[in-house]
Write a structure and sequence with these properties.
Number of helices: 11
Strand content: 15-25%
CATH topology: Alkaline Phosphatase, subunit A
Length: about 500
């Protein structure tokens, strides 16, 4: 018997009753978008209540500033560079997807007898015959869209009030957006006015069935909100002070409220860890339709704080003491933390996450002391673009992005080309989270030199352990792989239509 298996068995023998897990993942939501993070006109009473009664993070990071790589990091506990989920994002016709050799949260919980479901946005691959869909990674049920809802025509995105022209064109040459049940298309194109209600109904039904069968459950709710183009059902459309973005945010918040209500009604709230965060920062190029980084610099697709520092809340009544933590943590830490709480074995691979149960349950310091920032198109020659160690952050390279345009800060714009920095830029994120004041601007001192040396040592140690996996995105595309509910129809892609 291997040492790894023996240790696994010892953990299983000593584990307490495993908690239910609800993992809520927003899309392109900025650090400054919700009420409890300071936005003055966002109506998010349910998220604000979770923050007031749970643990709100001020220094929580995604593994990347873009959808596909950040979702890979969340579910595997590994940087996207290891799994090959780079550069940029997968397309509906991509040949690649999350390698089946990667082990996900859902797979480790499957061995613990959990009921497991995903609802919402996947964006880790579709592939031939749906080979990269969630059902191939430990999810027993999947209701959702296999990629971003912006990756298709938006004409079917119904707007309120009636006869209002929808905002934005999206990708007109793509197939109409499908909704899948497991691996079967049940709707194409999506009816956005009813989509969230469909998701809410399924989520509540799944939880009720799991409770009835006396199984612990894991629900991964990966919302399309609040990515552009925003939409909302009739209950929320036109109701917010922030226009379409605020309407979408309100609908997302409403879904959170319905989930919590279901847990309460089924009397499992006190044995359920609810964790909320977002995949990456806001798409500021959309201006008021793109979200807010708050006081942080830039947004989506950059390694500035606005691109990767996210709102995050952990809620578990009777187990997590309400409060605010300034400890460092990341989406990479969610897999090892869930493994510890559930008594599951950790995958026998290199993990980039840390178990933060002591931080959640006992208010102790986080085991994470360092965060590495890869660009959305990384390579082994350049390595990490930035690194945070304790309160200090250095930038070895900086680069703007089209997604972070339309702000007064030109460092965020696509005109800000990739720039190496030697010496690197150095910021104290405790006193300057907006990254305004380079500590080296006044010259090098012995103390600053020591800080840089310590950080460089952390960088060198980490990069020696990093092996880049084969890029899945660069495997190319094949239009025949686009999901179509009527695969023999013509002309494609617009003939791909069906209804529930």
């Amino acid at each position: 018997m291997s040492l790894h298996l023996l240790l696994c068995l010892l953990v299983l023998c000593t584990a307490a009753k495993p908690p239910n897990i609800v993992l809520i993942y927003a899309d392109d939501m900025g650090f400054g978008d919700i009420g409890c993070y300071g936005h003055p006109s966002s109506l998010t009473p349910n998220l604000d209540k979770l923050a007031a009664e749970g643990l709100r993070f001020t220094d929580f990071y995604s593994s990347c500033a873009l959808c596909t790589p950040s979702r890979a990091g969340l579910l595997t506990g590994r940087y996207q560079t290891r799994s090959g989920m780079y550069p940029y994002v997968l397309l509906p016709e991509s040949r690649g997807g999350l390698p089946h050799s990667e082990i996900t949260i859902s797979e480790i919980l499957g061995g613990q007898g959990y009921a497991i479901a995903m609802v919402g946005k996947w964006h880790l691959g579709y592939g031939a015959n749906g080979t990269f869909l969630p059902t191939h990674y430990g999810f027993q049920h999947f209701l959702g869209v296999p990629y971003a809802h912006s990756q298709g025509p938006c004409q079917n995105l119904t707007c309120f009030p009636p006869n209002t022209t929808c905002f934005g064109g999206c990708e007109q040459d793509q197939v109409l957006l499908p909704v899948l049940w497991n691996e079967q298309i049940i709707q194409q194109p999506v009816d956005f006015t009813q989509l969230e209600q469909m998701y809410n109904d399924f989520a509540q039904s799944f939880i009720a069935d799991a409770v009835k069968s006396k199984k612990p459950f894991f629900l991964y709710l990966a919302s399309h909100h609040t990515q552009y183009p925003q939409y909302a059902g009739e209950q929320y459309a036109g109701k917010s002070l922030r226009g379409p973005y605020g309407d979408a945010l309100m609908e997302f918040d409403g879904s959170v409220g319905k989930l919590i209500h279901a847990l309460q009604q089924l009397r499992v709230e006190n044995n359920t860890l609810v964790f909320f965060t977002s995949d990456n920062g806001p798409e500021t190029m959309r201006m008021s339709r793109g979200g807010s980084s708050g006081h942080l610099k830039c947004g989506k697709d950059t390694t500035y704080e606005g691109g990767m520092r996210e709102p995050a809340i952990a809620y578990w009544p009777g187990h997590i003491t309400p409060g605010v933590t300034h400890e460092l943590a990341s989406t990479l830490d969610i897999l090892p933390t869930i493994a510890k709480l559930s008594g599951a074995c950790l995958p026998n691979v290199t993990l980039d996450g840390f178990d933060i149960t002591h931080l959640l349950l006992k208010g102790r310091g986080s085991r994470r002391k360092t965060m590495f920032y890869y660009p959305t198109a990384p390579n082994e020659t350049q390595g990490v673009f930035a690194l945070r160690h304790g309160k200090y952050k250095v930038h070895y390279f900086t680069q703007g992005s089209i997604f972070s345009g339309s702000t007064p800060d030109e460092d965020c714009h696509p005109t800000a080309k990739m720039t190496p920095h030697d010496p690197p830029l150095l910021f104290d994120l405790e006193s300057d989270p907006a990254e305004n004041y380079n500590l080296l601007a006044g010259g090098m001192t012995a103390d600053l030199q020591q800080i840089l040396s310590n950080i460089k040592r952390e960088k060198d140690i980490f990069e020696k352990t990093m092996t880049f996996g084969e890029s899945q995105i660069l495997k190319g595309t094949d239009t025949a792989l686009r999901p179509c509910c009527n695969p023999t129809c013509s002309p494609k892609p617009l003939c791909c239509r069906c209804s529930c």
